[in-house]
Design brief:
This protein is mostly beta strands. The protein is 12% helix and 33% strand.
């Protein structure tokens, strides 16, 4: 594969009602990016293979190019992009392209469904374990789970296990000596 060929870098995205998350997974040098109301342009050269990356994303709707947060994690460039209309609905897709872009994927770690209660609480798609445990602990006595119905029988797995063959051979050798 020729390093002179210019390809788009892997891009992941997620959204909220007021903003977009766009992550570009490329460890690059000579980086250049630019935002307009309608698009984002990213250009760079891979640090290890010298592969040239270049991509322009034409957004589905308008963004606020003055309100962009960036973070470089050496291997991933993270962008938080605010939509022009802060109370806008979810976009059906990131770009206005008619064809599916092979390098563009949804970031399910940051994705929140439209209208979910915890939509404006940070990234991540799992349960907040502390909140779940606090709900369990706050239940009154009648709703708490009971483990009294489990019998205290000895499990068949608790029986003594036979010795391994090498242990038996060692014991037999000691007896014959």
């Amino acid at each position: 594969m020729s390093s002179e060929k210019i390809v788009p870098p892997p891009v992941k995205w997620a959204q909220r009602t007021d903003l977009l998350y766009v992550d570009i997974a490329a460890e690059c040098k000579d980086i250049d990016f630019k935002f307009t109301e309608d698009s984002m342009h990213f250009k760079g050269v891979d640090s290890s293979s010298n592969q040239k990356y270049d991509v322009t994303l034409n957004f589905f709707s308008k963004i606020n190019p003055e309100k962009i947060l960036t973070k470089n994690n050496s291997r991933v460039y993270e962008f938080v992009i605010y939509k022009k209309q802060e109370s806008a609905e979810y976009w059906p897709k990131l770009t206005n392209d008619k064809n599916k872009l092979h390098f563009l994927k949804v970031d399910f770690n940051k994705w929140k469904n439209e209208g979910s209660d915890d939509e404006n609480e940070g990234g991540g798609a799992g349960f907040d374990n502390l909140d779940l445990f606090s709900k369990l602990n706050s239940m009154d006595g009648s709703n708490k789970p009971s483990f009294d119905d489990f019998e205290d029988e000895e499990d068949s797995d608790d029986e003594d296990l036979p010795k391994l063959s090498s242990e038996q051979d060692d014991e037999e050798e000691k007896k014959t000596e």
